[in-house]
């Protein structure tokens, strides 16, 4: 996330990407995602444009080759449950002309992330190939206030989708529609005004959405490769506020925390006592336990004997009913039933409770236009202070100085040699020989486009999170995040559903059983045929309960499954032959929050610049005073040969996490 670009350090940075913006943190339009799927299904490696790049390596230097193709995505399978033939010849509304992808024969289209439509905000659109430096001015934000900004109105109007009568239908988070709590003294951000009005009759039949409509409205989709939420008091929110990067983004409060047992998930004292799914005794037991969790450090005698036990085993000793144990484990702490220790469970429960009431009555925020917007926010700030971004700019190798043992340059696929002091490389760029001793974990991911919510209420505009416990022994719990159209991630009358869990098998094998539990996977023709058959059934031969339940489930219109590499737990010492001034950043992890990425970014920054503050508040442009030396044009670090230093010719464009290079001053 462009961590070297500190406003106080004034260190020029160059960030390159093989193709599109953001790596595995990226967000795509629907057509862009189809191009990404096709690219990752290709088995061939990219051709080497510069066959003689090794000639640029001197006798006292050594080349460390880098991988030209991202191999972090595996077992990718996509399914269309609509009529694909009807979409032939249908063009995406407002699509840009397609451009060739350098070094990727057969790859289609412009950078997939560049196809997003951003009607609700000024400034650079996500994935736009315009240089973010041109968009350095603060983006106007009429739709929603960012975390850290104090709204003018102390009682802001609630967004459609955040209101629901207390104690409504089973499965909804109790109190999810109550006014956001302001007990912490902080006002919640105003909700986005881009939301559509809630349906007057949520019980009516969902509108029929065809595959051709999805293709035509493809730019309305912003589909993240990784699915996460922001804890309202998490490290990322604190960093966004501290660095003032929050001004580049807009957020929506997650409105519902659902439970798989058709019960409500109490989030506050009012929610507990409004819940119809808990008895009065259970309510008192739950409130007593949650009160203990808020200051569990002050009562070590309560849990010391169970520190070696799992959190699930500890809950059994607290005289909690099975329903309460289920709610706490899967809908509040959201930790593993078999792997998380007692302390990990208590810490997670406390974090959940502490995040309540800051921006709403759930602990979570979601950025409008998707998680892929977050790294781009840091990209904008970096560009304001001189950061340069190059898309479709692969790097062939690192150049190692044998005498000092430090990396001194890179060679790109054009044969250019770029000198630098520090090098930050995303794990996917490292070659197989460098990663021989590395043991990676995998994440199973699924993305669905559905025609209705997993739990219909009076409001269609709900952002929901649901943890599905393991359906079999040895499997992991599955985190389900359902996004409505007001998050600007899908077209109207559809929902975007993300499923994530640590991998035990392929993504489809891990996640399809959960999809079958929650959704209807019939094709469009089968679904219409079943509905027609149901209308012809006589009173004497009614549909079975199972068939009725299947018809009432949300129907999946399109789905994709894939496995993503999780390199978050890999130590630098595991990589073979990396110089001391080369730093490796991981891709996304399987956790719900972003704490791992923030901690890693700060750790790398402090190793490089121990005397500098990490992401300090940027100065106002009118307060910046430039020295005479800074006004003079700097000598370029680009070289076509080891001896000569011609003028810089790097193309400037928006980019994200990739091979980040910090040039020498």
Automatic annotation (TrEMBL):
GO terms for biological process: intracellular protein transport; small GTPase-mediated signal transduction; vesicle-mediated transport. Residues 106-208, 611-665 are annotated as: Disordered. One of its GO terms (cellular component) is nucleus. InterPro entries: FAD/NAD-bd_sf, GDP_dissociation_inhibitor, Rab_escort, RAE1_2_domI_C. Gene3D superfamilies: FAD/NAD(P)-binding domain, Guanine Nucleotide Dissociation Inhibitor, domain 1, Guanine Nucleotide Dissociation Inhibitor, domain 2. Its main location: cytoplasm. Keywords: Cytoplasm, GTPase activation. GO terms for molecular function: GDP-dissociation inhibitor activity; GTPase activator activity. Residues 624-635 have a biased composition (Acidic residues). SUPFAM superfamilies: FAD-linked reductases, C-terminal domain, FAD/NAD(P)-binding domain. Residues 443-590 form the RAE1/2 domain. Signal peptide: none annotated. The keyword Transmembrane helix does not apply. Belongs to the Rab GDI family. This is RAE1/2 domain-containing protein. It comes from Lamprotornis superbus. The lineage of its organism: Eukaryota, Metazoa, Chordata, Craniata, Vertebrata.
């Amino acid at each position: 996330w462009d961590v070297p670009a500190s406003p106080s350090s004034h260190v020029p940075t160059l960030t390159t990407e093989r193709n599109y913006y953001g790596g595995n943190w990226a967000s795509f339009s629907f057509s862009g995602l189809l191009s990404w799927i096709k690219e990752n299904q290709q088995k061939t490696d990219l051709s080497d444009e510069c066959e003689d790049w090794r000639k640029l390596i001197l006798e006292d230097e050594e080349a460390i080759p880098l991988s030209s193709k991202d191999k972090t995505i595996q077992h990718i399978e996509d399914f269309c449950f609509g009529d694909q033939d009807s979409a032939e010849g249908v063009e995406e509304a407002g699509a840009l002309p397609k451009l060739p992808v350098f070094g990727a024969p057969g790859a289609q289209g412009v950078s997939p992330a560049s196809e997003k439509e951003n009607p609700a905000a000024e400034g650079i659109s996500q994935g736009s190939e315009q240089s973010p430096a041109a968009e350095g001015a603060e983006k106007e934000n009429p739709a929603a206030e960012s975390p850290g900004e104090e709204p003018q109105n102390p009682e802001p109007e609630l967004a459609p989708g955040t209101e629901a009568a207390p104690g409504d239908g089973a499965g909804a988070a109790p109190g999810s529609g109550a006014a956001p709590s302001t007990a912490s003294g902080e006002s919640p951000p105003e909700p986005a005004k881009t939301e559509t009005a809630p349906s007057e009759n949520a019980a009516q039949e969902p509108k029929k959405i065809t595959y051709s409509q999805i293709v035509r409205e493809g730019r309305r989709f912003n589909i993240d490769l990784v699915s996460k939420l922001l804890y309202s008091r998490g490290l990322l929110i604190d960093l966004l506020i501290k660095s003032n990067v929050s001004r580049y983004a807009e957020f929506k409060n997650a409105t519902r925390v659902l439970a798989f047992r058709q019960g409500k998930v109490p989030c506050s004292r009012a929610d507990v006592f409004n819940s119809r799914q808990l008895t009065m005794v259970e309510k008192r037991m739950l409130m007593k336990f949650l009160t203990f969790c808020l200051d569990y450090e002050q009562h070590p005698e309560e849990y010391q004997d169970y520190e070696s036990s799992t959190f699930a085993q500890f809950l059994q000793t607290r005289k909690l009913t099975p329903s309460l144990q289920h709610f706490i484990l899967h809908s509040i702490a959201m930790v593993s039933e078999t792997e998380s220790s007692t302390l990990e469970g208590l810490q997670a429960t406390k974090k959940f409770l502490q995040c309540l009431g800051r921006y709403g009555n759930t602990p979570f925020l979601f950025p409008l236009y998707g998680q892929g917007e977050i790294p781009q926010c840091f990209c904008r700030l970096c560009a304001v202070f001189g950061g340069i971004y190059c898309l479709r700019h692969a790097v062939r190798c690192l150049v190692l100085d044998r005498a000092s043992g430090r990396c001194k340059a890179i060679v790109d696929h054009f044969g250019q040699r770029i000198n630098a002091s520090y090098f930050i490389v995303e794990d996917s760029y490292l070659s197989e020989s460098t990663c021989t001793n590395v043991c990676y974990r995998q994440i199973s991911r699924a993305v669905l486009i559905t025609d209705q919510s997993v739990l219909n209420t009076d409001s269609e505009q709900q952002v929901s999170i649901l943890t599905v416990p393991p359906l079999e022994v040895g499997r992991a719990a599955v985190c389900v995040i359902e996004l409505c159209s007001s998050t600007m991630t899908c077209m109207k009358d559809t929902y975007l559903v993300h499923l994530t869990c640590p991998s035990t098998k392929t993504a489809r094998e891990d996640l399809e059983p959960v999809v079958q539990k929650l959704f209807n996977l019939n094709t469009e023709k089968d679904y219409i045929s079943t509905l027609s058959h149901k209308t012809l059934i006589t009173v004497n031969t009614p549909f079975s309960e199972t068939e009725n339940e299947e018809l009432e489930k949300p129907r999946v219109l399109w789905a994709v499954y894939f496995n993503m590499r999780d390199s978050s737990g890999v130590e630098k010492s595991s990589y073979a032959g990396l110089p001391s001034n080369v730093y490796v950043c991981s891709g996304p992890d399987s956790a719900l929050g972003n704490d791992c990425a923030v901690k890693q970014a700060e750790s790398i920054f402090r190793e490089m610049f121990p005397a500098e503050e990490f992401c300090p508040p940027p100065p106002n442009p009118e307060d910046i005073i430039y020295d005479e030396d800074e006004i003079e044009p700097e000598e370029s670090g680009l070289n076509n040969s080891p001896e000569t230093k011609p003028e810089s010719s790097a193309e400037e464009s928006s980019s994200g996490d990739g091979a980040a290079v910090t040039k020498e001053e």
